[in-house]
């Protein structure tokens, strides 16, 4: 009585070192009081910096969590609301929030927005809508390890890497795009599009105007799609933000007559910017009404709880609150980011210069015993077990060069971050002595 | 019919909605995205499912997998148990949503187990064999049987003897059994609903690794907007795989917290289940009696939120086209939106 092929293969990606590090952390988690020698979790891209802002809003607005509107109970209305078009007030609040993040230089149409149970669901749904089993999407490396599961597992879609290297700060180049496309062809895979994460996970950098131009030219020439995963858009703490959505909307009138306008799709989620991964709030934004229609129907398999839609619609439609939250959150991110970069620099470790995200892309190549991935794994194990830090090795993100690690900084107190930096200092000093 | 009971509960228990001024636990809850689901929620669901079955079956919280409603639960199981091109056998008439939920993205087929009014639409061993053979003749591999118990659209529970026959059939063919029990709390008299879980427990869980139960709070608690579904599987590999796949369709932790609080209050749930049942029975009797006065018979039902109404006497000719004509008449002239049997694949 066998199970399906999907159930028995390894495409869930659970065996990757990315997840194994988590398991080690779970066995021996750091706690300032109960387990001060435990492993500090620096492999989880969570934003825990600004909960106080959300909590104080909730205290002042108890109706939102209490199923009330203007003091009147709307429990039944919400309990029964399962329309896959989503709560209109919530979609309006989402597009306003997305707009606010982009400095109000862009307007989004709520009718082009599809709600999904988190970005995980949004990513998979777009694959189902845009590609057949056996087709491929091109992704710049390094990329978020979860994509291997989210984009490929149940959809049967393949990922072909666009190699990016430290030689130019991991920027996407025209030759790299062409090489990836050719590699797909050699493997007999039909390329359906390019998926970029902007700001990038794990790099923490926003795409430059040149990169965006390159991408747009490329998808236009090849007649394929462009997906821009912008779930970290609210974490840009250095305002050089350029997003696919911003660029395209800026020249909207001109671009709307461009053939590729309907092939550009954006994903967003509240898991990173608001720090609410548990609430499962994601969305797809597409200019193609056929994609919007199909994705809307597919969202039946992962709708957002109406209880949560209501709470967040109340919160985010308060423009003053939304604006002040974004500004304060960015400020706090800038502070802890600087702390980590400074701390690492003092031990002789440099990071890729970044302006966004909840992590740094750290260069530990000089600490490798050899320029190999085996050496990277050895170093990683030392850092997990001896230094007591769960960080993510670049190989788990499909990086081509050994020695890079993603280190998260927004999911702990400043004291814990300081302790983590101290532990690295000690390790590096010992390392040098050896 | 029972929202007042839920609203009353919420008024008395503000901690369930993180409403109190301290907002304690808000951030932990907001961060909780573990695909195992909140333990307190799984415990509460297991206990609620036990209460619905009058304690005649026990459920282990470690086997509860969370999904955002029943459609993804059904889809997930289909992805896990069958390959594209394989088939699930489903008794007719069945819930129209299955055509999308089980087939769309999975590429799996539905082959009908034909049931008809000659024996109150009960599933027979002959019908099971016939469906299996039909699939075989088309070179389609059958991976399992999916039953809805209590049945949608029949509004009737499946008898114990028939459940045992179905279990014997799937064991003999070495295939799976999915029991969609989302209306289990809506059976009017608790004794008449027999869950597959009871049968398995009675036989010491022999052959149980092929059985999987789907449940949801959309019907029994009237909360379809909250997207609360579960898969309960007796197969360890299925539980592990389903859990990983549930990443695509988790329940909002805010909602898990609310329901963990509500459903772990056993006094509340006991009262809710009883009152809800009696209100549903009253409604059922009202509609059936009213229709009877108009000379319209219904299938004898004992569960669900609907009755299976027999309008055959009103058809000019017993054809699908005439059924559609009658349906249009009822829609536009009588101004009632009801579901024609053909949409449920009634033969």
From TrEMBL, chain A:
Identify the pathway.
Answer: Alkene biosynthesis; ethylene biosynthesis via S-adenosyl-L-methionine; ethylene from S-adenosyl-L-methionine: step 1/2
| Gene3D superfamilies named among the record's database cross-references | Aspartate Aminotransferase, domain 1 (3.90.1150.10), Type I PLP-dependent aspartate aminotransferase-like (Major domain) (3.40.640.10)
User: SUPFAM superfamilies given for it?
Assistant: PLP-dependent transferases
Known cofactor(s): pyridoxal 5'-phosphate
Q: Give the keywords, sorted.
A: Ethylene biosynthesis, Fruit ripening, Lyase, Pyridoxal phosphate, S-adenosyl-L-methionine
Please list the residue ranges annotated as the Aminotransferase class I/classII large domain.
40-424
One Pfam family per UniProt: Aminotran_1_2
Provide the E.C. number(s) assigned to this enzyme.
Answer: 4.4.1.14
CDD domains, per this entry? AAT_like (cd00609)
Biological process, per Gene Ontology: ethylene biosynthetic process; fruit ripening
GO MF terms held by the record? 1-aminocyclopropane-1-carboxylate synthase activity; pyridoxal phosphate binding; transaminase activity
Protein name per UniProt: 1-aminocyclopropane-1-carboxylate synthase
> What lineage, starting at the top, does this entry show?
Eukaryota, Viridiplantae, Streptophyta, Embryophyta, Tracheophyta
Automatic annotation (TrEMBL), chain B:
Identify the residues that the record assigns to the Aminotransferase class I/classII large domain, covering every copy: 23-346
SUPFAM superfamilies listed in its UniProt record? PLP-dependent transferases
Q: Which domain of life is it from?
A: Eukaryota
Q: Which UniProt keywords apply?
A: Pyridoxal phosphate
Query: Which CDD domains does the entry mention?
Result: AAT_like
Which Gene3D superfamilies does the UniProt record give?
Aspartate Aminotransferase, domain 1 (3.90.1150.10), Type I PLP-dependent aspartate aminotransferase-like (Major domain) (3.40.640.10)
InterPro entries (UniProt xref)? Aminotransferase_I/II_large, Ethylene_sulfur-biosynth, NHTrfase_class1_PyrdxlP-BS, PyrdxlP-dep_Trfase, PyrdxlP-dep_Trfase_major, PyrdxlP-dep_Trfase_small
Name the Gene Ontology molecular function terms of this record: 1-aminocyclopropane-1-carboxylate synthase activity; pyridoxal phosphate binding; transaminase activity
Question: Where are the coiled-coil regions?
Answer: none
Q: Which family does it belong to?
A: Belongs to the class-I pyridoxal-phosphate-dependent aminotransferase family.
For this entry, the protein name equals: ACC synthase 2
Originating species = Antirrhinum majus (Garden snapdragon)
Tell me what gene encodes this: ACS2
